[in-house]
Structures are given as structure tokens and as C-alpha cells.
């Protein structure tokens, strides 16, 4: 007999008909007259309640119905007598697919710490919290593709293995098939990469931007959405060695177009999640409220999760230059009272505390900062006429600080190569990138958004390792 | 002044209004009375014709308008006097963004070989052929996400860097941050991976399937769509070292459900491309026809590109077992006449010539073969009761042979571990995979589709390096 996912079953609720459901037991509760089983199949955070009369199921079957066991149940869908659910399934037949020995199955119906669940990342998608996160992650990923497709962008798969190391975005992982113990050496004792698989030294990409620009200067508007890598030995709640990045690049876009796109994009995907993940977000909102209660009053967030999401989609982002922001920060109360951990003055890179002050205290709106000092930004950003700043933009969010970073790109070949030489990058290593400025150069712009940062923001989770199925971090590559 | 992508402009064609277009010059043609410029912005395969009166543009501007140059042109959209286009732009103003020196720009308006274009992969998206391929690739990728989203699947990002090497799907790339010349060694002279970034030896994934199964046994239906890697030193038109794979996994699906899904899925995404990429497909159809003309009569394809795509979406796929297929092949004319290059008998792995005979000659329909001998299939496939075959399925297409490979998965812990031991895989190395059979096991199934194989089929191209933006192959990692 064919079966319906529980999500559809609860939505259509064909009361009075015979249905089959399949899923995993969340809880079993026995009363004098009946057995109540909460079954979940991962399609939704909501369980379906299955009811058997006392004595209806053989003792050996009942014994196998424990938390985590997998079963199919057939019966009539009826209006529920109890509180908490509209419908329930009156069991006629049950088939156990796979039991879950209660003495060994690690996921029992009690509160598990996130740390513990990280150690059993192969099973944690079976919990309410992680299934909600993964469904929201899916919805956000789909919203990203839908947004760009609806707006005339083409998805471009930039390479994962790359021989270019010009971006300078961070330390890289080497990709090789050479003998690990005794690699072939050149005469001067260096590893002879000409014998490696690709005939040269190769690494995992840190960004698809440079190749993305090649695409934009041919197809007009492109976006990437793929894995990127950083071999930084930092064990924090905000860093992963492997994470997914979204990088749109647009020919004929200048800085203001770029800002308009970034604002519209991030609002649209968050709105999509609010529309499509109401149940999962409500669950995580409550989860966060409970967590907040355990904190000291002054550390509690002023906004609930849903309030924070509404805050972003319902406010126009404030736009100002870095220089204007520095003025505000220098004259702010925390600066005058020495409450910032890092000092602030023109030329410094802003810290999260500064970004959050602007968003949460000063403007009480999301903020886009532009025209940063060239010294603290990448070589490919378009230089302003003043010779001091570049057409960069950072989008700042409450709680999280920078969520998007981008810029108009330098389209003048001479300025670009001069800047590369200043920062010590040999233009020859990315001759192909420079060809786009040599032949048919055009004003263009783009930005990058770390996908896990977005999922972190939308789910309200505190550790980035909890918003990707199988996190990769120093000493962490299990599963 | 804001501008319209050429695709939108040609669609809406607001005749009589002033518009701005931006793009790259494809060709310039001068007659006695006028200059005609074909401009393309990558949004569509169609150019817009721009017309200037003779003498209207300054000589120095005209000189810069060469193939590959980038410009913005403003003027009135009018009905075209000439043949070949419905509308054209009567130029009022032109701005050159970036010239393209005709003596140096490699893409001139003539036929370039695919081999040559592969060497300038950073510029080839500016050609008709490659921009068409990349737009179709985008449409197919979006269709994949849309199909699974519409059908209740969740997108699961399985890890790219992995410590598991149990799949045995092929040779792997090592990922490391150890010193390449002098790696730390253990006492017995082996590389000491405990000092590597992840504290163990890690590789690039060859498949997300095993982690995908973890997801399916929690969320019900998931799919992956990400890069996978093979370090095989094979320089063919069908292999890449880095390619994108689509792998759905479904709890509660058995072999027949898996076949139904695969057939519906591949038909739906091809139908989507036919609906959304008509112009690009028409261009590639003609391209292929021209190419076919250069071949000997007997090597020419019986179907045009569009006929082949219609063939797939309009036929029910024939389903038969491997054993039945062997019967047909053994009694076939080519077998009796000794025309197959590889001999065929029960137990052998089918070659492309056999698969194509079944599809193109015998059934004249796409074919799904099932229940292959266990010895030629992977350890995780569900064993049939006969002890000889497994619940595998391969979907075979004309011209290309196998396009999808999948199976129902072995959900019995004892059978699975016994089979692993038979083929020499230590169950301990993937304890987490076996946990899904230990706790709440369920019937489940899934399949894999190499995305570039699909793009190859839909675009009618002959070399897989031409359907991915920046191909990675032995000695090939430029850009």
C-alpha cells in the first residue's frame, strides 16, 4: 500500500479514510486503555499520533516499539480525542522495519546537549532541532536558486580544485596524489609538482569570485553556490574548514546596483523561509527562548528569533560610508567611555562590536557600509577617485555583524595590475583574470555570502557547526 | 540610465521608445549608408542589431567598435528594415567601456575549434556555443532543484572532505596541510597523519551517497547536488577529475519506486530544458547537424538533437532484468555475427555497445536494467533472495549508455556486514553508516546521476570537458 508523508497527511487530513504512515517512533506512552505512539518521518517537525487499544498489539511487537524504531502503521484517520493534535491514526496493522535497542540507541527522549549531538552527527538529523535546521537550510538554498533564476542570473560552477593562489583570502588545503612519504623532488630538493596529478601544485578553492567574474563578463549575470575551504587552525563557533558560499557577479552593475541587489536578495530569501518554514521556525523560536532564560538578564537578546527576522525584512537598510561610520563610532558613548574592546579610528578594520553598535544601538536597522580604506580591502576592488578608498560594501546584521561582503570590481587594467604589484601578487599568475580587463572590460560588481552565516542567522543557532550536516574543523572529519 | 538585458528587450520589444543596451560586439558591418553592430550581453543567444548612419559616429569611436569590445548604446527601438531580426536600435549615443584589440583578442568572428576554445576556457563563454551550453546547464541545474523541492525532498550538503574510503568508487585525491617536502613521520616511517589538519588522512569525496543515506533515514527524502572527484589518470571524452553529482536517497522506497522516480525525474528536467531553452537548443541542434554532415554516412546519428530529447520524454522506459537483457544480447545479430567488441554472457559487466544495442536497436526506447549480478555491483546494494543478484538499476539512454545508476540499499545489518567482509571492507571504518541499520533501519533506495553526463546528453556535445565551465583533468587545472 502506498503511503503519505506525514506533512501531507496532516495538511490534507482525509478523516475517515484508511492510510498508511511510515516513520520513526519518537515516544510511546501507555495508559490503561490504549497505547499512544508519536511517529515522525522527517518531512515535518510535527508527529502523527498513532493509537492502539490496550491488548491490540502482540506483546513482542509492543516491546519493539521504542524510541528510534522504524515502522509502518495502517489504519483509519480519525479526529483526535486528546489535546495537542487534530487527527490521529487508529491502528489496524503495524509492521516493524527496524528496532532500536533502548539500551544502545543514543537518542532517547530527553534533552541532549548540542555538544553531545555534534559527536553523533550521523544521527542528530533525527532530532527535532536538527531536522528543523536542515529543513530550513534546504528552504534557504532553494530560495537562493529561485531568486537568481527569477532574476536572470545563470548558475556557474566555478572550480573546486584550483592552481590559483592569488586571492589571498586565507590558508589553503593542498590537493595531491603524490606519494605522501617520499614525494618526487626536483634537483634543488623541492617537491616536483610537475609529477602531480595536475602537473602543478593545486589547492581547494577559497572563493569562486575570480572565475565568477569571467562568467559575468560573458553571460552578464551569474552566481556561484558551492563549497569553499579555509585551512585556518581556528576552533571557534564562527569558522568552518569547509563551508558553502554564494557569490553573484554582475556585468554593468556599479556599487549602488550591488547594494540594491544584496538588500533585495537577502530580504527575499528570509521572507521565503518565513513563508515556507513556519512550523520549524516556531519550534526554534521557542527553543531559543528557553535557552535565553538560562542567561543573565543583560546577556539576553532584545528580540526573539522571529522578531529579528521581521526586523531585517521590514526595515530599509541604512547606507553610509565607512568614513561616516567611523565618525559615529568615535563620538559614540562606548568609545568615549572606553567600553569598546578594540579602539576605533579611520583606517582600522571594524570589529564585530563596532558593527553591532551601528546596527543594534545607533541605527536600529540593518546597515550597509561602503567605501572602505583600500589598505584593508582586497586588490580587486574598484579604487575611488580620492586614492584612499575603494568601492567596497559590507552588509551588517544584528547579532552577527557582517553577513555580506562585496564591491564594485576594478575594471581598469592598469590600476588593477598596479594594485596587484603593490600588494605583491604577480599578475602573470592570473593572466586569464586580467584578460577580462584587456578585452571588452566593463563596469561590474559582486558580493559573497557565507551560506552557513545565513542559516545561523535564520535559525538563531549559536554555533556554525550546528547548521551544516557534517562540520569540518581542525581535528574533525568524522562521517 | 537603466538598461534592459537583451533577452527581455527582444521579448517585450517596446517599439518607438528610447532604450539603453549594454553588451559585447559580436560583429560590425559597414555599408555605404550605415554601420550595423551585432551586440550580445550573454542573457540570450540572440544579438540585438544596432544601426548608426554613416558618418554619425566619430572615426575614433568607430575604430574601437570591434569584435569583443564592450559598449553601451542608447537610442530608439524601431522595426528592422533588414531581414534576420524584428527590431533594431537606432543609435543616438554610444559609450565604449572596454575595447578589444583585434590583433590580440583571440575570439574573432570565425569558426574556432573546440580544442582551441578549451585552451581559452576563460573566454569561451563569450561564444555562441559555450554561452548556449552554460545557459542550458543553468536551466538543468535549476530544474533539478525545482523537481526535488516540488516533490518533498530536502537538499543535503554532504561533506567534500572525507576520511572515509569505503565506497571504493575510484582513486582519490588526498587533502592535506602537512609539509609537502618533509612530512612528519611515525616511528615506522609512515606519514604521521595525526599531525595533519584533521588529525587523520583525508580525501576528496567520490560520492555523497553514504552520508545521503544518513539524511534519508532521518528526513525521509533527501538529495545531494555537489562536486565529486576521481583521481583516475584517464584522458577521455567521458571523464573529469572534478564533476557534479546528483544523488537522491529515499526512505521507504523499494526498487520499483526508485525506477519510477528516476524516470519521472529525468523526463521532467529534460522537458524543463525544452520549455526554457528553445533558442539555445535550436542553435545547438543546427550546430550538431553541421557537424554530422562532416561524418561518414554510417556514422551519422539517426536522430537530431531535439528528436533524441523528444524520444526520451515521450517513451515509457522499458524495464527488464539484467538476466533478460543478457538473453536478448546473446541471441542478437551482432553477437551471432561476432560484431560486438566485448563478448557478452551472464556475469559480465555490460559495455556501452551492449547498452546502446538494447536502447537504439532492440527496444528503440530508453531502458532500465535491474537485478544485476552481485559480483559486479557495490556492497551496499540490497541482495536478492536468489543469492546471486542485487536490486540494482541502471537507466540507459541512446548515444550515451548508462546515465543513472542506483539501487535499493541493503537494510539488513547482518547481510550488509557479511558482504562488506566478503569484499574486504572493515565495517569499523564506517561504523556510523552501519548505525543506520542498527537503529531504526528501513527499506530505502537511491540513485546517482553525473550532472555533466546529463548536460552532455541535452546539449548534444561530444566531449565532457565542453559542458563544465573549467574542466579538471590530468595535467589540466588552469583558470
UniProtKB/TrEMBL annotation, chains A, B:
Its EC top class is ligase
Question: EC?
Answer: 6.1.1.22
**Where does the record say this protein resides?**
Cytoplasm
Key words, A-Z: Aminoacyl-tRNA synthetase, ATP-binding, Coiled coil, Cytoplasm, Ligase, Nucleotide-binding, Protein biosynthesis
CDD domains given in the database record: AsxRS_core, EcAsnRS_like_N
Q: Which Pfam families match?
A: tRNA-synt_2, tRNA_anti-codon
Record's subunit section: Homodimer.
Which family does the UniProt entry place this protein in? Answer: Belongs to the class-II aminoacyl-tRNA synthetase family.
Please identify the protein, giving its name as recorded.
Asparagine--tRNA ligase
What's the source species for this entry? Spirosoma taeanense
Amino acid at each position: 500500500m502506498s503511503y503519505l508523508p506525514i506533512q501531507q497527511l496532516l495538511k490534507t487530513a482525509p478523516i475517515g479514510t484508511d492510510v498508511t504512515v511510515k516513520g520513526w517512533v519518537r515516544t510511546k506512552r501507555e495508559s490503561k486503555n490504549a497505547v499512544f505512539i508519536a511517529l515522525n518521518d522527517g518531512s515535518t517537525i510535527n508527529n502523527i499520533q498513532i493509537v492502539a487499544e490496550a491488548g491490540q498489539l502482540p506483546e513482542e511487537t509492543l516491546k519493539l516499539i521504542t524510541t528510534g524504531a522504524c515502522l509502518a502503521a495502517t489504519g483509519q484517520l480519525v479526529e483526535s480525542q486528546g489535546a495537542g493534535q487534530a487527527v490521529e491514526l487508529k491502528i489496524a496493522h503495524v509492521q516493524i522495519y527496524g528496532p532500536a535497542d533502548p539500551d544502545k540507541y543514543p537518542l532517547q527522549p530527553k534533552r541532549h546537549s548540542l555538544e553531545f549531538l555534534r559527536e553523533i552527527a550521523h544521527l542528530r538529523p533525527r532530532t527535532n532541532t536538527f531536522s528543523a535546521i536542515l529543513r530550513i537550510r534546504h528552504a534557504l538554498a532553494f530560495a537562493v536558486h529561485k531568486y537568481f533564476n527569477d532574476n536572470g542570473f545563470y548558475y556557474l560552477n566555478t572550480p573546486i580544485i584550483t592552481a590559483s593562489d592569488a586571492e589571498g583570502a586565507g590558508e589553503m588545503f593542498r590537493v595531491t596524489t603524490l606519494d605522501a612519504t617520499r614525494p618526487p623532488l626536483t634537483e634543488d630538493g623541492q617537491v616536483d609538482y610537475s609529477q602531480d596529478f595536475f602537473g602543478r601544485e593545486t589547492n581547494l578553492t577559497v572563493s569562486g569570485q575570480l572565475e565568477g567574474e569571467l562568467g559575468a563578463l560573458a553571460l552578464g549575470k551569474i552566481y556561484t553556490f558551492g563549497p569553499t575551504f579555509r585551512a585556518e587552525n581556528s576552533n571557534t563557533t564562527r569558522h568552518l574548514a569547509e563551508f558553502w558560499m554564494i557569490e553573484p557577479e554582475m556585468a554593468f552593475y556599479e556599487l549602488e546596483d550591488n547594494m540594491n541587489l544584496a538588500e533585495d536578495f537577502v530580504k527575499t530569501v528570509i521572507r521565503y523561509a518565513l513563508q515556507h518554514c513556519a512550523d520549524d521556525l516556531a519550534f526554534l523560536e521557542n527553543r531559543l527562548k528557553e535557552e535565553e532564560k538560562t542567561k543573565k538578564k543583560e546577556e539576553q537578546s532584545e528580540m526573539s528569533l522571529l522578531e529579528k527576522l521581521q526586523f531585517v525584512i521590514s526595515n530599509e537598510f541604512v547606507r553610509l560610508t565607512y568614513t561616516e561610520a567611523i565618525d559615529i563610532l568615535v563620538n559614540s558613548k562606548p568609545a568615549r567611555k572606553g567600553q569598546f574592546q578594540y579602539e576605533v579610528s579611520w583606517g582600522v578594520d571594524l570589529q564585530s562590536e563596532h558593527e553591532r553598535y551601528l546596527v543594534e544601538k545607533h541605527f536600529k536597522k540593518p546597515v550597509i557600509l561602503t567605501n572602505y580604506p583600500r589598505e584593508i580591502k582586497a586588490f580587486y576592488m574598484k579604487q575611488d577617485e580620492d586614492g584612499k578608498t575603494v568601492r567596497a560594501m559590507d552588509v551588517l546584521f544584528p547579532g552577527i555583524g557582517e553577513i555580506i561582503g562585496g564591491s564594485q570590481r576594478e575594471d581598469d587594467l592598469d590600476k588593477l595590475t598596479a594594485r596587484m604589484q603593490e600588494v605583491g601578487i604577480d599578475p602573470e599568475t592570473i593572466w586569464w583574470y586580467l584578460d577580462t580587463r584587456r578585452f571588452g572590460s566593463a563596469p561590474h560588481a559582486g558580493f559573497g555570502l557565507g551560506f552557513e552565516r545565513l542559516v545561523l542567522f535564520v535559525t538563531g543557532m549559536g554555533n556554525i557547526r550546528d547548521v551544516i550536516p557534517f562540520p569540518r574543523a581542525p581535528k574533525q572529519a568524522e562521517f
